[in-house]
Design brief:
Layout lengths: L5 H10 L15 E6 L6 H5 L6 E6 L4 H15 L3 E7 L9 H10 L5 H8 L9 H14 L9 E6 L6 E3 L2
Parallel strand pairs: 1-2, 1-3, 3-4
Antiparallel strand pairs: 4-5
Length: 169
C-alpha cells in the first residue's frame, strides 16, 4: 500500500466537510474537463474550480476517445455543455510507441499466450506531438455525433514547468 495514511487523511477531510454533501449532482459550471492522470496535475487548482463545479475526467494522456462514455453521460444526463481538453508538457505518452509497450509487457510474461493476445489487442494511445494530439482530440469530439454541439469544445496544454495553461484551439 502507498505510504499515505488514507484513513487519517479522510478523518481530517470529513471533519471540515461542511455542507458539501448537499451539492447538486450536476456540476454548477456545466463544464467537463478531460485531462491526464499525471500526479503532477491538479486541474481543480490550476483552473480555479471548486468542488461541485465541473466533472474532471482523467486518463493516461487525457485522451478524448477514452473519455467519450463519461462525456456523453455528463452532457446527456447531467447538463454539462462545455468541454476542455487539457494535455500537458513532459507527458509520458510522448515517450513510447504502442509496439514498445506491447513488447515490454509481453517480455515480462514469456510464453504466456493470454498476455500476448491481450496486449496485442490493446491500443495505448501514445502521441509524438503534443499540440497535434490536442487538435486531434478536439476534432474527434466536434465530429462525434453523440457529443453535444451547444457548448464550446476547446483544447489546452498545461505546462508542468510553469503551472500555466495555453490555448491550442
Amino acid at each position: 500500500m502507498a505510504e499515505v495514511d488514507f484513513k487519517q487523511a479522510n478523518e481530517s477531510y470529513a471533519a471540515s466537510f461542511g455542507d458539501n454533501g448537499k451539492l447538486s449532482i450536476p456540476p454548477s459550471k456545466h463544464l467537463v474537463v478531460v485531462t491526464c492522470m499525471d500526479a503532477r496535475l491538479n486541474p481543480e487548482e490550476f483552473l480555479g474550480l471548486n468542488l461541485g463545479e465541473a466533472h474532471i475526467i482523467r486518463n493516461a494522456g487525457g485522451l478524448a476517445k477514452e473519455s467519450l462514455r463519461s462525456i456523453i453521460i455528463s452532457q446527456r444526463l447531467l447538463g454539462t455543455k462545455d468541454v476542455l481538453v487539457i494535455h500537458h508538457s513532459d507527458c509520458g505518452m510522448l515517450t513510447f510507441s504502442d509496439e514498445q509497450l506491447r513488447s515490454k509487457i509481453a517480455n515480462t510474461h514469456p510464453g504466456d499466450t493470454d498476455v500476448s493476445e491481450a496486449v496485442n489487442d490493446m491500443q495505448f494511445g501514445p502521441f509524438p506531438d503534443l499540440d497535434k494530439s490536442v487538435k486531434d482530440d478536439i476534432a474527434f469530439l466536434k465530429n462525434h455525433p453523440l457529443v453535444l454541439k451547444e457548448g464550446n469544445i476547446t483544447g489546452w496544454v498545461y505546462e508542468v514547468e510553469t503551472g500555466k495553461i495555453r490555448e491550442v484551439m
